[in-house]
């Protein structure tokens, strides 16, 4: 069985209290420890990171924490920014280049490359998002997530065979880097993506917000 990665991206959702409710779900407490072959990375909003880290440690859950974004700058006079260095010891992963960041915040390749540089200086692992096989990918990223624009938040996932074709092209350019598919992934369709030879996991948005739904998605990953 190949190593699989599931990345839950909560985006701008959940209060601290809602985050605690999610992590304390019965399914997580009793069943998640039984799962092998999946590296699970949870990317909540910044405000919930410390609380979730404490909950994960107390319950000894096999969950790694990541963030949805970092500053392109290091520590300093950058009001409102969260630098990679500030996250040392709190998270292991960071999502960089998500299509929504590119669309709504006008993030350019130049900015994203700087963010990757900052992440690596801080010892963070990078999940780098691309919309096609032609997008430039900086060196030293750890995972690449293919996100077809039409599938993000639309409920209209890309055909698994089409996703495989693009992921294969990406993998041919960036050997030895796991490739994830992201875009309207659900418990009903995830198995179709994971059985594709070039797809090593999924970046999950809406389906990760409800703990029971997301646990069903994990269950479906083993079909």
Describe the structure.
Helices cover 33% and strands 17% of the residues. The chain is an alpha/beta fold and 223 residues long. It has a single domain (4-221), classed as Aldolase class I (TIM Barrel, Alpha-Beta Barrel). It has an 8-stranded parallel barrel. α1 packs parallel to α3. The longest helix has 14 residues, at 160-173. The radius of gyration is 16 Å and the shape is globular. 37% of the residues are buried.
Instruction: Name the CATH architecture.
Output: Alpha-Beta Barrel
The radius of gyration over CA amounts to 16 Å
Low-confidence stretches: none
Distance between the termini: 12 Å
Shape verdict: globular
Q: What is the structural class? A: alpha/beta
Please state the oligomeric state of the protein chains shown.
single chain
Strand content: 15-25%
Number of helices: 8
| Count of the separate structural domains | 1
From the structure above, extract its key features:
223 residues; alpha/beta; TIM Barrel; 8 helices; 17% strand
Describe what is shown at a glance.
With 223 residues, the protein is α/β, with parallel strands linked by helices. The chain contains 8 helices and 8 strands; from the N terminus they run E-H-H-E-H-E-E-H-H-E-E-H-E-H-E-H.
